[in-house]
Amino acid sequence: MIRGVLRLHRTALIVWTVFVLGSVASLVWLTEITADDVHATLAACPRNDPDGGCGIWAWRDYSEPMGWISTFMYYGFWSVAAWSAGALIGRELESGTERLAWTQGVSPMRWLTAKLSVPALVLIVGGALFVPVYRWAWSAHRDLMGDDWGFADVFAARGPLVVAYGLCALAVGALTGLVVRRSLPATAIAVAAVIVLNRYVEKYRAQYWPSADSDGRELPATVWQLGDGAYHPQSHFWPLHLVETGIVLAVAALATLAAFLLLRHRTHPARTPRQESPA
Question: Whole-prediction pTM value?
Answer without folding.
Answer: 0.86
